[in-house]
User: Fold this.
Amino acid sequence: MPFTPFHMGPGILIKTLLQTSFSLMVFAWAQIVMDIQPLIVMLTGEGHLHGFSHTYIGASLLAVFSALSGKYLALLGLYLFEMNPNWQVSIPWWVAFLSAFIGTYSHVAIDSIMHADMMPLFPFSEGNGLLGIISVPLLHKIFLFMGFGGACLYFLLDYMAEDKSAVDREGG
Assistant:
């Protein structure tokens, strides 16, 4: 199913670990861009469901597109949601590209475990060595845990940083 939220679980954990060196919004945009081709196939009934966009070559091209467009879309989204009212937040290009490549490559890896029609190394190989290495229900549980655990850790680290800055202001 295109646009599955399970892909966001690893992204939330990565955001927690890398902080400002990773853009969750660019990562999320890369997930959407990756699933446009399968969505078109589902709507038209024409083509290969997990086709070229779900190969590492296709993912590389989509990562470049996602980084170039996602950086500006993320900044616009932050502005519109009043999280960046004066445009003071910026996303460095290297962060946009890192986030987009992590997004597209992880998408191919995750879908390779779940979908029999995946050929991630095409045109070099039509095989899929990751298919079924773990069950889909277990994979979904892992990603839910990553997302929930990453979010909890993010808020814990944020709380600890606020607590430390309060102590520093008080001179303690």
About this structure: The chain has six helices and no strands.
